[in-house]
Amino acid sequence: MNLLLLSNSTQYGRGYLEHALDTVTGFLPRGARLAFVPYALADHDAYTAKVRGALTGAGIEVRGVHEGGDPTARLGEADAVFVGGGNSFRLLSALYRTGLREALIEAVGGGLPYMGASAGTNMAAPSLRTTNDMPIVEPPSFEALGLVPFQINPHYLDPDPASTHKGETREERLTEFLEENDVPVLGLREGSWLRVEGDRAVIGGERDARLFRRGAQPREIAVGSDVSELLRVTAAFDTRA
């Protein structure tokens, strides 16, 4: 696998992908033909235009998979694929409907570089169960792409001790997930990402990650840390503690 999994595509005070542009353009070398999957948002043309505007200056050719013909055929013409953020339920539903779910699993498993942001990063996990999104549509299944064997929580937010909000914190929700499922969850804070090359996985970006495991206290994972052991876990869903 050759993966770049971003927590977010837009960082406060910066333009689209600007906070990770050096990493993105290193992952997608100049002249790369990039197939963009815009299905997490409703306006596919506008979304594709935004990505094209962010990457054209780096010499990357962006084509939306919705732009004429069979979306799955775009993968065969591309040097890499980027699955953008938005609503994870809408995105996964579209991947099933268009046949892209199976096509992506096959293409990325065969070596096609995969970049995801937010919802696109959620898709790389085995299941949709650790997304932060509202289920605005109902996909046929929660089964995502399973490019990595563990779960990811993009946009991870730390509890605010000064908050008067009495709803569940992100940490509490992930703890609830682990009460029912035995699979690690990697919380990626804003501005961070995970880089996977073959059997090696490393945390990158501006902020540390947070790792949740059943029966253990969450622990901080510093930027630059090797988390390759997560690539060797076996996920067990619907397994009560």
UniProtKB/TrEMBL annotation:
Enzyme class: hydrolase
Transmembrane segments: none
Protein name: Peptidase E
Upper classification of the organism: Bacteria, Bacillati, Actinomycetota, Actinomycetes, Kitasatosporales
Gene responsible for this protein: pepE
UniProt KW keywords: Cytoplasm, Dipeptidase, Hydrolase, Protease, Serine protease
Active site: 118, 133, 155
Function of the protein: Hydrolyzes dipeptides containing N-terminal aspartate residues. May play a role in allowing the cell to use peptide aspartate to spare carbon otherwise required for the synthesis of the aspartate family of amino acids.
Record field: catalytic activity: Dipeptidase E catalyzes the hydrolysis of dipeptides Asp-|-Xaa. It does not act on peptides with N-terminal Glu, Asn or Gln, nor does it cleave isoaspartyl peptides
Coarse class of the protein's main subcellular location: cytoplasm
Keyword Cytoplasm attributed: yes
Keyword rRNA processing applies: no
Biological process terms in GO annotation: proteolysis
Any one GO molecular function term: dipeptidase activity
InterPro entries: Class_I_gatase-like, Peptidase_S51, Peptidase_S51_dipeptidase-E
Gene Ontology cellular-component annotations: cytoplasm
Location relative to the cell: Cytoplasm
